[in-house]
Amino acid sequence: MICSLLSQAPLSLAYYKSFPSTYKIKPSAPLNRFSPGFLSPISTPAIRVFCSKPDEVGSMASSVQNQGSISYLTQRKAAEVDEILMGPLGFSVDQLMELAGLSVATSIAEVYKPNEYNRVLAICGPGNNGGDGLVAARHLYHFGYKPFVCYPKRTQKPLYSGLVTQLETLPIPFLSVDELPVDLSKDFDILIDAMFGFSFHGAPRPPFDDLIQKLVNLHNYEQVQQKSPVIVSVDIPSGWHVEKGDGGGEGIKPDMLKFSGPHHFLGGRFVPPTIAEKYKLCLPQYSGTSMCVRIGKPPQVDISALRENYISPEFLEEQVEADPLDQFHKWFDDAVAAGLKEPNAMALTTTGKDGKPSSRMVLLKGVDKGGFVWYTNYESRKARELFENPHAALLFYWDGLNRQVRVEGSVQKVSDEESEQYFHSRPRGSQIGAIVSKQSAVVPGRMYCTSNTKN
Ligand SMILES: NC(=O)C1=CN([C@@H]2O[C@H](COP(=O)(O)OP(=O)(O)OC[C@H]3O[C@@H](n4cnc5c(N)ncnc54)[C@H](OP(=O)(O)O)[C@@H]3O)[C@@H](O)[C@H]2O)[C@@H](O)CC1
Ligand SMILES: Cc1cc2nc3c(=O)[nH]c(=O)nc-3n(C[C@H](O)[C@H](O)[C@H](O)COP(=O)(O)O)c2cc1C
Ligand SMILES: Cc1ncc(COP(=O)(O)O)c(C=O)c1O
Ligand SMILES: [K+]
């Protein structure tokens, strides 16, 4: 259920009614230009990443360069990078493994939600790739998944026995190879292939030969089954030649970390500039606080199949504040406490005299009994429409909380003093931007700017 608060004069709560109707909006203007007020949409060119050699596989330290193509590190160079990181650059293997395992877990959580893909089997090999799998299993447990671990060749080093102890105390069950079902598709939703990374060589030895075969076989089961588990390969698909890839085409076909497939993530947001320079790594832009970044083709999605299962605590009419503004404050505080990004972002819809509505995002800068306050340019399109028709609707949507607030009402300008005060509270760059950019106007090019407007 989405909880929905509709504030009008008087403010009231709105309930959903469900009836069979669909609408289609035909954009009346071509959707081919950036909206002028969007937060620096093109200040830094996005790195376009695509794979120039789809049959090849790079290590986790693969780099992005040559205007958008991926370049690869050889097996020797990847190992060399490890040695430098863990030698003169002072990193410990524990540290790098923790970062790698956390990146794997967060990438999985980004794509496969725990309410749909809950049962995870991490198949871990004897080396550091296996260690990445052990760390990922621990994080996934805390993210709400139910992980199992198959770790048939345990390495007797304190790092690994520590990781095993951490998992056992959660508790995460360890399964022997014999305990695994022949067909993994029924018991697991996600299979983490953390058997081998860049130090793999030759043909896989037992018991990993059979384990790899179990993952390969999944594609045969897939034909008779509707849903089969997804395979997430850490660093490289185990069994693939580290530099030549899946030569015979008979290896594991992972769903994540697969060049031709939909989900390929690159970690490495810790690589110091000295390494990046030495190996000519042109690292991608990581966003926010993410340790890894999606690269390659964006996933193809069936829009009609996108669906969330909204699970919210019960919300009864008697729990609703008598004054919708009080309810708004409560929910706003919840949105802030939940750590949502820009909880004050709201869609503002205006309609000019032509009766055609237009919406855009603005930031709420204050709210009290007098109304909801935002700031904008008095010469913008929305300002013109509000001049023609001083009525507007606001919409807040707090993803994660499954709540929206709808506000409808009449609009007035705040006082000049209040406007001035807000303007002077803004960072210098925003002030300059507001002065030189003519909001809502098409900019003929990057070389042009005007100086006749002011927010
Ligand atoms: N770069 C980074 O930033 C970071 C890298 N990290 C991770 O480390 C990974 C590299 O780790 P790694 O060097 O320990 O090697 P890995 O591939 O796990 O396996 C070696 C083991 O497999 C065995 N083995 C080999 N071939 C075999 C075969 N045919 N059949 C059977 N066994 C075989 C081999 O045994 P051996 O042949 O030596 O007897 C040895 O025991 C890397 O891919 C990444 O995931 C992160 O943890 C930290 C940050
Ligand atoms: C998250 C977000 C917040 C925004 N906040 C504001 C704002 O507070 N004031 C504003 O004038 N524009 C803001 N913008 C830009 C507007 O969405 C819009 O592009 C711009 O105001 C021009 O709109 P108009 O041509 O319909 O008048 C924001 C954009 C985004 C994506
Ligand atoms: C055009 C414009 N004006 C105003 C704002 C509000 O920004 P600030 O919080 O810097 O005042 C934004 C934010 O995105 C904006 O894009
Ligand atoms: K692997």
TrEMBL record:
Its cofactor is K(+). It is an enzyme of class 5 (isomerase). GO terms for molecular function: metal ion binding; NAD(P)HX epimerase activity; nucleotide binding. (6S)-NADPHX binds at residues 128-132, 197-203, 235. Its EC number is 5.1.99.6. Transmembrane segments: none annotated. It comes from the Eukaryota. K(+) binds at residues 129, 193, 238. Binds 1 potassium ion per subunit. GO terms for cellular component: mitochondrion. PROSITE patterns: YJEF_N (PS51385). It catalyses: (6R)-NADPHX = (6S)-NADPHX; (6R)-NADHX = (6S)-NADHX. Keywords: Isomerase, Metal-binding, NAD, NADP, Nucleotide-binding, Potassium. Residues 78-303 form the YjeF N-terminal domain. PANTHER family: NAD(P)H-HYDRATE EPIMERASE. Belongs to the NnrE/AIBP family. Catalyzes the epimerization of the S- and R-forms of NAD(P)HX, a damaged form of NAD(P)H that is a result of enzymatic or heat-dependent hydration. This is a prerequisite for the S-specific NAD(P)H-hydrate dehydratase to allow the repair of both epimers of NAD(P)HX. This is NAD(P)H-hydrate epimerase. It comes from Hibiscus syriacus (Rose of Sharon).
